[in-house]
Amino acid sequence: MKSTLNNIMRPLLIGLLGSLAISATASPKEVLAADIDALVSAVAGSGCEFIRNGKRHSAEESVKHIARKYAHFEEEIDSIETFVSLTATRSLMSGKAYQVQCGTEITSSEQWMLEKAAELRILNGPEAGR
Question: What average pLDDT does this structure show over 87-109?
Answer without folding.
Answer: 95
